[in-house]
Design goal:
Helices cover 39% and strands 16% of the residues. It has helices at 14-35, 56-69, 89-97, 112-117, 127-136, 154-166; strands spanning 43-46, 77-82, 102-108, 140-147, 171-176. Strands 1-2-3-4-5 form a five-stranded parallel beta sheet.
């Protein structure tokens, strides 16, 4: 879990993902059945759990379930949160095929030292490739950055913003870190 996160988390494993997606799809089916008709949606937001962490196959099942159970013909915005470190070309194709037209690229920081100190998973992801492929797939990209997280300096924050601008994001969000009473942080006041 990232040190600043107050969201529910569980261990990452395929069995948990399969069970979660199975129950989510079941809930969508049951909800729509109880309503008795297809509800028309004009916007969809899938987030809070960086949905692509489950992999492109399970994500495809969720997106297809939404399209099959709701009238999605008039959606103006179909938005999804993405964890850049679990994003690949196949997942981007799944998003495009399912008419996702906006994403939040939840990077938090491009600085691997800051990510490491905040227990944020990272790898050698090619952010430029990801953002370009998303944009070429007609998906608007919002880059999501955290401000004043552990070990971040004004200089590193400015560097993150400049790099997000270089990537030509459609939007850059700066989310100010606020300590939650539900999470125990170890913040070094000297950094």
């Amino acid at each position: 879990r990232c040190t600043y996160c107050h969201c529910y988390t569980s261990l990452e494993n395929e069995e948990n993902y399969n069970e979660y997606i199975k129950k989510l799809i079941q809930e969508i089916h049951e909800t729509c059945k109880s309503i008795g008709k297809k509800i028309s949606l004009d916007s969809v937001f899938i987030g809070g759990w960086t949905p692509n962490i489950v992999g492109s196959d399970l994500l495809w099942k969720v997106l297809r379930t939404i399209h099959e159970n709701f009238d999605t013909s008039n959606i103006s915005q179909f938005n999804i949160d993405l964890n850049p470190y679990h994003l690949d070309d196949n997942t981007i194709r799944v998003l495009k095929e399912n008419k996702v037209n906006r994403c939040t690229y939840a990077i938090q920081s491009f600085n691997t030292d800051i990510l490491r100190e905040n227990a944020r998973y990272f790898n050698d992801t090619d952010h430029k490739h990801n953002v370009n492929f998303l944009r070429s797939s007609w998906i608007q990209v919002n880059i999501d950055l955290m401000v004043w997280i552990k070990w971040q300096t004004l200089e590193s924050c400015i560097t993150d913003i400049k790099y997000a601008q270089e990537l030509q994001a459609d939007h850059i969000s700066l989310n100010y870190f606020i300590q939650s009473s539900n999470v125990h942080y170890q913040i070094d006041d000297e950094k």
